[in-house]
Here is the input.
Amino acid sequence: MAIPIKAYSMLEAVVGPENISEDPTMVDVYSFHFLAELQRKGTGTKFLPQRAGAAILPASMEEVQGILSVCNRFGLKSKAHSTAFGSWNAHSWDDVVVLDLRRMNRILEIDAKNMHAVVEPYVTWAQLQAETMKLGLTPSLAGVGCQTSPLANVTSGLGMGPFNISMGFNERSVLGVEWVLPDGELLRMGSVGSSAGWFCGDGPGPSLRGIMRGEYGNMGGLGVVTKCGIKLFDWPGPDRLPIEGTFPDLRFSKDITDKVKLFLITFKNRESRNKAVRLIGEAEIAYQMYAWGHGFLLAAVPELSHLIPRKPEDKMPSTDPVLAMTLASNSPAELKYQEKVLMEILRRTGGSLSDYLKIPGVDTTIFRYLTRPDYLFTCLARFASGWWITLFDFVGSPDSITEVQERAIDTMNRWEGKNILPGCADSYCQPMYEAAHVGYLDHSGGYYDVTDPDSRRGYTDMIMEINRPLVDANLIHPTIASNKANQRAGALMCNFHEWQKKIKAAFDPRSVSDGGYYIELD
Ligand SMILES: Cc1cc2nc3c(=O)[nH]c(=O)nc-3n(C[C@H](O)[C@H](O)[C@H](O)COP(=O)(O)OP(=O)(O)OC[C@H]3O[C@@H](n4cnc5c(N)ncnc54)[C@H](O)[C@@H]3O)c2cc1C
Here is the structure.
């Protein structure tokens, strides 16, 4: 069903004719999509098979309410975009009204004393961090990259990143929320609902945070968030990122090791790395942390990419697991104490400080990945061709992650040089949180040629070969955060999809919010 003329003119009346379009040249921009070529029933190109009905750019909460009211009246589906980095920003149906929220781009408040900020959807992590660093604070940036939206991340999707170790998964970062429900009604959640400011996302009474976001977020499947409060945390470093130069030739512009100190540590095996991670978590000393496979380091740090074998006679790189982390404090004495604890943990677990940090630029690149993450853009995604993670996302204890990792690496070894970078089958990235008792795992060393159907097919075959045995062994669940996958995963996990359907039916009985990455009603 195309958008009826009457509905279009009502939408136009809400935002003004210059802020809505159904022109294919405008609308198809929203179908040009990061992973479209991998869809099994897709077009084989970068375009999604579904075509949006209209793109609309509201400038306020009231305009969002107006749009959703029209969608309800005419039974149209809608899909919110913040910065739309992908892949969950794809619309799942034809004729969806895409709400591009780029005009809502203000940092509305930074409350340094109470350590929170209030943002609109199109503010990026980089903007928020640049402003808060001036006040000795930072948000908990997600690993996806500083170019994406904190609001989308904390309210609607995922939340893992290098700061998780000291600041928690980003389900913990969301405070008060201004939320336009799918029927157009406004809900102010938490303290802001009682006109008490944005400092808390819960109450009074039962909290709706679990309904709104749960562990992974509803990915635009339940209305549109127009403002939210976000936690800020202590940043002991300088008021600007202490880095100068142009990528990939970046260098520290000043020594900050009396406040924030970077460590790159290697271990002989994953068991001793896990033991160290647990002890570091228990000692509560880490500020930022990623557990990386050696392959990740080579694939993501340009200064180390010469270690990737190019010819058969080249030496295979090390597979020693790696820990990249910082210690941080406003007190040099405390920092020294933290370092002493870390060195004792490394002594007990056989960890050693990596010589890679002596190569010019490696320290700066890794520090930047931890502090203003953008490696997905600047490094992994630098492959001119296609790229995507190879392991369905997995959350677990360090040991359960390792079991999954090892099985996945066994399979990926067979694909090295085809759809996995040579020597990089262990290219995993693992943020840790909840005092390092829990971690998140994905694998990044895969690539394919977007223009070559065999290469694309190889890639999807490889993904099935890696993941299917792990699903069959109940070690991982089918990837979540899509309607179909949630139904499959739910059947294996206490039928969570049935509860999602109940929530969807209560909040969105007309299915106005595109549930393609959440749940759709039967
Ligand atoms: C290659 C890649 C790597 C990633 N790695 C990480 C990672 O390390 N850590 C992590 O946390 N996440 C990761 N993600 C997911 C990531 O969280 C989101 O893509 C991103 O944070 C969201 O920001 P965005 O501005 O791009 O959101 P968008 O892509 O615009 O939206 C993301 C989802 O939220 C919904 N949404 C957006 N804005 C609103 C709103 N205002 N109201 C209601 N719903 C909304 C959208 O409909 C969509 O489903 C990764 C994604 C990709 C593609």
In short: Residues 480-522 form one domain. The chain has a mean pLDDT of 92. Residues 79-89, 101, 121, 142-144, 148-149, 151-153, 156-161, 219-220, 224-225, 376, 517 surround flavin-adenine dinucleotide (CB under 6 Å). The longest helix spans residues 453-472.
